[in-house]
């Protein structure tokens, strides 16, 4: 049986592209892939501080805060779809929420507006420290983030408006600002 000799094959590149152009172009595309993946964070944690109003009668704005995280699910063009989980703490409100989040990354300006529809439970206490039981609540959340460092965003504003069954269907509101750490 005759020995098999390696044969040299000629591969032609489309549209007359030479190897001098193909190799630098391939290296450039490979260098862009990690940065594109990095720009679309899959996981982020955040904390904000500001004011919160429970929606109970005779209750004014109080200091409050929000903490939570979101996990990226899909990216379609400039839109990112995520799942968000958050907790709100203040003198009169303790709550936990979960729900969908959509954010848009503007092409030229480093601003990322977002919106959420979240639902969960809330516990209220009146100014006389009388507890109102946990009950179903939902919130509409709107906000704006901007990047200040590669993995750090400033949450410029986070506003939420809620319907809370435990507060006699009162409308709680929050207005906060804080930081987001993206991984």
SSE topology sketch:
Elements: H1 19-39, E1 43-53, E2 62-76, E3 79-90, E4 93-104, E5 111-125, E6 131-149, E7 152-164, E8 173-182
Antiparallel strand pairs: 1-2, 1-8, 2-3, 3-4, 4-5, 5-6, 6-7, 7-8
Describe this structure in words.
By secondary structure, this protein is mainly beta. The chain has one domain (41-182): Porin (Beta Barrel), CATH 2.40.160.20. 11% of the residues lie in helices and 58% in strands. The chain is built from one helix and eight strands. It has one helix at residues 19-39; strands at residues 43-53, 62-76, 79-90, 93-104, 111-125, 131-149, 152-164, 173-182. An eight-stranded antiparallel beta barrel has the order 1-2-3-4-5-6-7-8. Strand 2 and strand 3 (79-90) form a beta hairpin. The termini are far apart.
């Amino acid at each position: 049986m005759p020995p098999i000799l390696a044969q040299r094959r000629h591969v032609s590149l489309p549209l007359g592209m030479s190897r001098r152009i193909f190799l630098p172009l391939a290296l450039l595309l490979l260098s862009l892939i990690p940065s594109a993946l990095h720009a679309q964070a899959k996981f982020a944690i955040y904390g904000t501080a500001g004011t919160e109003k429970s929606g109970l009668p005779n209750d004014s704005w109080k200091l409050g805060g929000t903490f939570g995280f979101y996990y990226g699910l899909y990216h379609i063009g400039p839109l990112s779809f995520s799942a968000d989980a958050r907790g709100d703490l203040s003198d009169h409100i303790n709550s936990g929420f979960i729900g969908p989040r959509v954010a848009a990354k503007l092409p030229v300006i480093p601003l990322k507006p977002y919106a959420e529809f979240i639902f969960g439970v809330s516990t209220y206490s009146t100014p006389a420290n009388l507890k109102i039981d946990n009950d179903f609540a939902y919130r509409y959340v709107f906000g704006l983030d901007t990047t200040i460092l590669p993995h750090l965003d400033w949450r410029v504003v986070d506003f939420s408006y809620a319907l809370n069954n435990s507060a006699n269907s009162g409308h709680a509101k929050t207005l906060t600002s804080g930081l987001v750490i993206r991984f």
